Amino acid sequence: MKLKILVWFLLPAGALLAAGQGAAPDAKPVSIASPDGRLVVDFRLTSAGAPRYAIRLAGQPMLQESRLGLVREDADFSQGLRLAGPSPTTPVRDRYEILTAKRRVNTYRANRKEFHLQTAAGQRLDVIFQVSNDGVAFRYGFPETNALTLRLKEEVSSFHFLPGTRAWLQPIAVAHSGWSQANPSYEEYYEKDIPVGTPSTLGAGWVYPALFRSGDTWLLVSEVSLSRNYCGTRLRSESPDGEYAVGFADPRENRSGGPVNPESKLPWLTPWRIVVVGDLKLIAESTLGIDLADQPAQPADASIQPGKASWSWPLLKDGQTTYDVQKRFIDYAAAMGWRYTLIDAGWDTRIGYDKVKELVDYARGKGVRILLWYNSAGDWNTTPQTPRSMLLTHESRLKEFDRLKAMGVAGLKIDFFGGDGQSMIGYYLDLLEDAAPYGFLLNFHGATLPRGWERTYPHLMTMEAVRGLEYVTFEQGNADQEATHAAMLPFTRNVFDPMDFTPMVLDHIDRIERRTTSAFELALSVLFTSGIQHYAEIPEGMAKAPDYVRDFLKHVPSVWDDTKFLDGQPGKFVVLARRGDGRWYVAGINAEAAEKKLALNLGELAVRGAGTLITDGDAGNLSFRQVPVQLSSGKPLELTLPPHGGFVLVLE
Question: 355, 394 in Cβ contact below 8 A?
């Protein structure tokens, strides 16, 4: 009998004894709590040696027991594991500054614990948890050293939601579908308030960030710190019983035959999986998706400056990328006090390098810097716009970068990427790393989600990864959905990462009936964050706006010191307050077809006295009202927004 007991403890956790002996009992959970003690993760191994975790908030379950683990081609790290021992719980503290997010200076505090697991053959996997007051993060590490390239077949991590949970999710498009086979580009509409377990409408999965509500608690799932040794992931299309599993990229989402699924030598650290947990205010104000990003390898260059940009393409399209039109947009940027002008696709053939150099010099004299568009594309799509494929190799990039640097170009907008495969992620990072010594500002379009790259690479100003305003200019159906779509983004796509939605048409769009008011459009200049904010309105439309609207757009900050959520519901309405240049800018939009009455508590902004409100007039496009607002201590500010209307409020 004593011998049998000894054999039991020598077997790996989850291994079976001889026939009739049964399985090892489930291990008792080990808990990790947030610094304030309210958020708790419970980790355990099942009797089959499978790692599991669950999340509780204030003692109440938020995520049911969910799966952990990886399957490598040479070993299965999802079952048959034993716990070699957990590390002690240790505090994590970080403080950092970032110019392209919702808050300039951020402090991160969490508790960290690592679980050291082994297979029956002794191969090692670490599961690493960090629990902060606003959320749970976990990642995997293979701590051994191995010079061979090892490949993952599957990541089994999952998020198992409680019965009755509702979801706000964006489906990812099928690879190589759409115009010129340019999908996926994270440019679909969010499915709103759907039951968990609903299959993806496009069958290819759901993108991050993914928003859920369980009772009165909200949860936001995403991925952070994606390096060149992993692919970008998504939530799989099928989620039986409300359990969403992590899925790898489509096999077609690669760069010129490069790897799609993750592969690496050892040691190997995966991206963080994060779950923000709390009320809607906590979700909207969280920076967890930046807090856990890889820190920059070197300090940001002083020449890297966020700003606002004029841009002809959204309303004037390809045919107006000409020398004279771009010169006019440089004058427009200078008159508005904006830092940049973007010259879009086709500049190489319609204007040419020599004449662009003239525009760069002209702009410099006006205090404006020039950004140029490039097509990333190799063999992953058939997009025809030029300049095309000039950035594909290290050698060709440096040759082009040398030429652009000599011309005085400030940065590049690079378009039409090919998805989330590991080799495509490597291409993004190649571009970022090669551009850094030149001081070029970068903006990726037709692209994946940044996942915190803006912290790791401070010269990454913004990325698209959204169905932006350009779609409104394409067809009426997109204009019909703009209001509800815009009211989703502060809770999802734009929660952490800068977003190049290219907002704001105050006047009109040819052949399109706008559904939003001009004050709604104006509010987007505050509601959406982007390191470079490219405004869609053209000089003729801006000239029709009242002087006080133009003055507002001249002075609205490009860097935000703080952000507060005041009110809202995803897809219905949202009110945010952002502080910059010594003022609070409060902005709100009503996405619904009925008027919205607001009672805003501004107490946490610590402002008194008067403010200036710009809201809707009653005469159609470019109809505004500017009224003084007197704040009363302890009394909410009451506003009524018309259907699809908006406002901005400046508080000194």
Answer: no
Whether the per-residue pLDDT at 13 is higher than 60: the answer is no
Give which of 248, 249, 179, 219 is closest to 570, Cα–Cα: 219
State whether residue 416 is helix, strand or coil.
coil
Phi first, then psi: give them for residue 302, nearest 5 degrees: -65, -20
Give residue 326's region: left, alpha or beta (phi > 0; psi -120 to 50). Answer: alpha
Q: What is the CATH number of the domain that holds 36?
A: 2.70.98.10
Task: Report the phi/psi class of residue 451: left, alpha or beta, with left for phi > 0 and alpha for psi in -120 to 50.
Answer: left
- Residue 565, domain member (yes or no): yes
CB neighbour list of residue 132: distance below 8 Å, 6 or more residues apart: 34, 35, 39, 108, 109, 110, 111, 288, 291
Task: Quote the domain boundaries for residue 641.
Answer: 468-499+507-529+555-652
Structural domain ending residue among the three candidates 291, 319, 348: 291
Q: Where residue 613 falls among pLDDT bands split at 50, 70, 90? A: very high
Rounded CA separation 529/289 (Å): 15
Query: Model pTM?
Result: 0.95
Give the closest residue to 272 by CA, choosing from 229, 236, 226: 226
- CA 76 from chain centre, in angstroms, equals 31
Radius of gyration of the chain (CA): 26
Q: Is residue 547 part of a domain?
A: no
CATH of the domain at 484: 3.20.20.70
Integer Cα distance of 333 and 312 in angstroms: 11
**Kindly report the CA angle at 167 between 162 and 172, in degrees rounded to 5?**
125
Count of structural domains within the chain: 2
Q: Which of 490, 500, 573, 575 has its CA nearest to residue 532?
A: 500
- CB-CB contact of 288 with 496 (8 Å): yes
pLDDT in tens, 478-502: 999 999 999 999 999 999 999 999 9
Residue 458 lies in a domain: no
**How many CA atoms within 13 Å lie on the side-chain side of 143?**
11
Cα(440)–Cα(338) distance, rounded to whole angstroms? 18
> Which letter, b or e, does each residue of 384-406 get, where b requires 16 or more Cβ atoms within 10 Å of its Cβ?
ebbbbebbbeeeebeebbeebee
**Segment 363-379 mean pLDDT:** 96
| Domain end point (choices 225, 259, 291) | 291
Q: Are 407 and 353 in contact (CB under 8 A)?
A: yes
Report the mean per-residue pLDDT for the chain. Answer: 94
> Do the domain assignments include residue 346?
no
